[in-house]
Structures are given as structure tokens and as C-alpha cells.
Amino acid sequence: MMEGTSLRKLVVSIVIVMMMVELTKAELHYVGGNKAGWTPNTNFSEWTSHEKFLVGDWLFFGFNKVLYTVFEVNETSYEKCIVQDFIKNITKGGRDVFELTEAKKYYFICKDYCFGGMKVAINVQDIPAPAPAPDKNASPSNHSIQVTPVMVLAIAMIWAFLFKYY
Ligand SMILES: *[C@@H]1O[C@H](CO)[C@@H](O)[C@H](O)[C@H]1NC(C)=O
Ligand SMILES: *[C@@H]1O[C@H](CO)[C@@H](O)[C@H](O)[C@H]1NC(C)=O
Ligand SMILES: *[C@@H]1O[C@H](CO)[C@@H](O)[C@H](O)[C@H]1NC(C)=O
């Protein structure tokens, strides 16, 4: 049978991992605002103006793979709609994801419809350090550290193991 102390350590470790997962949760952005948003009819600058992209987030390109494609290109190729010598071909089945691993500007275009406006520039920022005090003027964000049910449960469990069963 497991000793009380090692069981306690195990539970505390599990709880800490759960809390870390909760705090570093990445966001999945549906490009264009929905699961089929990668189309020529979407206003992508309008869409990005309402989104906040942080390092570790993911993009989801949902589209008809018969008609459309997704390529990561550099800024020049984005402006001029040039697919040749692209950085990455993201086109697979039309439900394709891309991880934003760096704080920089990423550029994506559709090969045949880029001139029609089917292209998007994504400005990725570093994850901000937790603010010392809540700012009433700050816009709500999914990334801010919030007290979630998992955290409440975690704290309750740590409390129980450290004090009640000691
Ligand atoms: C896209 O949205 C932006 C910002 O709302 C607007 O300025 C622009 O005219 C729109 N473009 C098109 C093609 O509708
Ligand atoms: C962008 O990529 C194209 C094609 O590979 C290349 O010719 C061009 O020099 C690149 N531009 C920049 C600014 O890196
Ligand atoms: C991009 O990838 C798709 C799916 O793997 C493939 O069918 C297509 O030929 C590729 N396009 C280019 C230009 O490499």
C-alpha cells in the first residue's frame, strides 16, 4: 500500500500539472470566424481586427479543398500574391491547422483567389506577463488568468491533503 506522504505528493503533483495546463491553454482561431471561413467572401482584415493572436495559438483553415488552398508566404509574396517559393503548404483536407510558434507576422494566401482578397496577415504577440492589478479598461481576453473550476478544485484538494490528512 502507498504511504500517506507519497500519495499526498502524487496528488499535489497531479493538481499542479492540471493548473499549469489550465493557465497555458492555447486558443484555436477559426480563420474568417467560422469552420468554413477560408473563402473569397470573407473580409479577413475585418476578422483579424477582432482577434488577438498569441504565441502557441493555432489557426484553423476550413475550406473546400477542390477550390481553395492555403500557403504560408513572406510579406512580399503576400502583397503580390505569389505562391512560388512559398514557406509552407498548409493545404491538406480543408480542415487544416497551423501553429503560431513565434511572435511575428505570418502571411497566408490562397493560390487562385489571392487577387480577390483571399489572403490574411496574422500578427502574433508574446504571451503577456500577468498584470499586477486588473485593468478595468482592458478588453476581455481568453488568455487572462482567471479563476476556473479546475483551479478551485485544485486548491481545495491541496488544502485537504496538506492540512486534513497530515
Ligand atoms: C473590410 O473591412 C474593413 C474594416 O472593417 C473595411 O475598411 C474594408 O473596406 C472591408 N473590405 C472590403 C473588401 O469589404
Ligand atoms: C520572399 O520570398 C520570395 C520567394 O522565395 C523571395 O524572392 C523574396 O526575396 C522574399 N522576400 C523577402 C523580403 O524575404
Ligand atoms: C500542397 O499540398 C497538397 C496536399 O498535400 C498537394 O495536393 C498540393 O499539390 C501541394 N501544392 C504545392 C504547390 O505544393
From TrEMBL:
Protein name: Phytocyanin domain-containing protein
Signal peptide: 1-26
Function: May act as a carbohydrate transporter.
Gene3D superfamilies from the UniProt entry: Cupredoxins - blue copper proteins
Molecular function via GO: electron transfer activity
Stored InterPro entries: Cupredoxin, Phytocyanin-like, Phytocyanin_dom
Domain Phytocyanin as annotated: residue spans: 27-126
UniProt KW keywords: Disulfide bond, Glycoprotein, Membrane, Signal, Transmembrane, Transmembrane helix
Segments crossing the lipid bilayer: 144-163
Family: Belongs to the early nodulin-like (ENODL) family.
GO cellular component: plasma membrane
